[in-house]
Amino acid sequence: MVAARITVNGKVTPISPAASHTTVLDFLRERGLTGSKEGCAEGECGACSVLVARPGLRKPTDWVAINACLVPVAALDGQEIVTAEGLGSAGGTGTPADLHPVQQEMAVRGGSQCGYCTPGFICSMAAEYYRPDRCAPAESNGAHSDPHDCEHGPNGFDLHALSGNLCRCTGYRPIRDAAYAVGTPSDDDPLARRREQSPPAPVATELTSDGRTFRRPATLAEALRLLRERPDAVVVAGSTDWGVEVNIRARRADYVIAIDRLPELRELRVDADRIEIGAALSLTEIERRLDGSVPLLAELFPQFASRLIRNGATLGGNLGTGSPIGDSPPVLLALGASVVLADADGEREIDLADYFTGYRRSVRRPDELIRAVRIPLPLAPVAAFHKIAKRRFDDISSVAVAFALDIEDGMVRAARIGLGGVAATPVRARDTEAALIGRPWSAETVEAAAAVLRSEGTPMSDHRASAEYRAAMLGQSLLKLYTQTTEAVLS
Q1: Per the database record, which ranges form the 2Fe-2S ferredoxin-type domain (predicted)?
Q2: d(CA 180, CA 196)
C-alpha cells in the first residue's frame, strides 16, 4: 500500500508517524496549523471545524465542514482538506493580508472578539458560502422570502450551517450579519473552481503504530472478511460516537475498520415499493438526496445534532450503537423500516422492531455490518416527529416520538409509533397503536390513546428529565399531533 498521506491546504503531507487514534485536530496542531481549536472534544462547539472535499450532488465536489476533533486522521488518507489558514490565502496571492470573503465579513462586522471560536465559525461559514445551490430568494422562486424567516439570509445563507458552532463572548448577531453579507464566489476563486473537479477517490489504508492498526478496506467483501478475522474490531464511519470515546474516555482500539467510503454502503435507491439507504451515507447526504420526499425524515434531520455532526454521522452508525436515545430509531420504527445485515456469507433483513434486544445490544453479530436501511412505500400520509429536549437544536432527547398514521374518511386505518428515551431500547408503542387503529380520529379516541401512550415503555429519571415528565410528554405528543392535524384540516 502507498504510505498514508493527506492534502492540507494544497500541500501533500504524510500521516505517519501519527498513531491510529490521532485525530485530525491533533495532527494539524502538531504541524503548526493551530487555527483549529479544541473546545469540547465532543463535536458540540465547532471550534475545530475544517473543510473536506467530498462527492457533491450538484457539482462533482462539495466542500463539507466536519469536526476535526472527532475524525481520526487516518480516515482522511488520500483526501483533501482546507483549514482556516488555507482559506486565508485561497482568494489572493497567498500573503497574510489576503482575507477570504468570509473572513473579511467576520472582521468588518465585529464577528470576533477573543478569536477562539472564530476559525471554526469561518470554516462552517465557508462550507455554506460554497454550497452550489445557495442563492438569493429572488433566484430561488421565492424560497426563504418570508421576512419573518430569521434562519435564512437574503443571500440564501442557511443559518443552520452554523448550528454546531458555539461562541462564548461575541454574541451571535454580528456573526449572523457576516453570514448574511457574504456574496457569491468569484470566477477566479480557486476553491469554487475546485468544485468542478472530482474529489479524491478513497484509497485502501493500513496504518499501524504501537501495535494498533487502522484499516480502510477497498471493498465491502474485504471489510466483511476482516471483520470475520477480527470480530473485536471497532467499526467507524463518521466517528461522531467513537471519536467522543477516544477523546473523553481515552478509549483505544487495537483494530479499527473504516467503512465510510465503501461504495456498496453509499447507495440510495428509490424503487416502486421501497427506499434503500446505504448505511454509510451521511445524514446530510441523505437529506439532500431525498429532498423532502420522506417528510418524517425531513422533520428529523434539522433536529439531529448539528450540521457539523450530520456531515459525518450515518444511519448505520446511529443504529449500530444501539443507543435508546438515538434520534433516528423512533423515526425509522414509525416508517416500518428494516435493516440489511451483511456478513462474509451473505445478507439477512431484520425488521427494525426486532433489531434491538437490550441496552446498546441488538441481533447484529460481531462479524456483521449494517449494509442498508429499507423503508417500505407508500408512506403514511400523516406523520410527525416530536423531540423533547432542553435545547431546541443540538441536544440529546429527553423523549422522542415519531408518528406515522393512515387516516381515511376520519378513521385511523393504520398506525405506527416509535419511541425513544423511555426504555432500554427504542420501542414501538404497540398498545397505543392498537388503541387508535379502527377508531375515529377524534378528541375522544386521541385522549384515550394518549392515556395508553403515557404508560408505554419504562422511563427512568436522570439529569435530563424525570420518569414522570417523560411519561407526561408521551401523552402530550399525541394530543399535539391531533391538534396539528385538526388545524391543518380547518385551514
Answers
A1: 4-87
A2: 25
